[in-house]
Amino acid sequence: MRSRVNDGCCDPSGRFWFGTMPYGPERGAGRLHRVGHDGSVTTVLDGLTIPNGPAFTADGTLMYLADSAEGRIDRFRVDPEDGRLLDRTAFAAFAPGAGSPDGMTVDDDGQLWVAVWGAGAVHRYAPDGTLTAVLPLPAVQPTSPALVNGTLFVATAAIGLTPQPDDRPDETRPGGAPRHDGRVLAAEVGASAPPARPAILHPGAPGVPSTTIAARPSGGATRREAL
Length: 227
Description:
- This protein has strands spanning about 5-10, 15-20, 30-35, 40-50, 50-55, 60-65, 70-80, 85-95, 100-105, 110-115, 120-125, 130-135, 140-150, 150-155, 185-190, 225.
- It is mainly beta.
- The protein folds into two domains: about 1-95 and about 195-225, TolB, C-terminal domain (Neuraminidase, 6 Propeller); about 100-195, Beta Barrel (Thrombin, subunit H), CATH 2.40.10.
């Protein structure tokens, strides 16, 4: 089955995590993978459909992962030494028609900010899973948030939507406000997150080229790890 990379990020230790999903509508065919410091690619989770995120707390001991197609966000305890997933708990669920959790980030206070595709909003959750804020956006399809020095930046997508000029009201939004799908939006929210972490690889280690890594997560070189 052909698949593609969807979303990814580095944990605080410099390991790169990324999700893959099929090109077709197959449920449960998505996976989460981890690239280790030595360049090895390990499949750490399967049975997903559209994995999004992940996002890590500053100490690297917790990871959040969305499955957009299933309308859920799970939280995992992570061993910061070797990146193993230790357990999995349900964190947030979205009712049908309420949008789908997409990209996310964790702020300096440990709160999770989630772009909600199809709902035109960013949700903020406390560490205990309580929804503490909903930020409406002038775009229906937000995809990924980032927090920098008190400003929330949100990438949005226009795919599948009927193009509309900025001065033409979108009657599907409250008040007929203009829609800005396909743009990067910004709002002052007074919250920040740790800077993006770089991938830390060790050139010269067995299997790690000195410039780039060619990883085939669906190929035979990938190993699996049980949760």
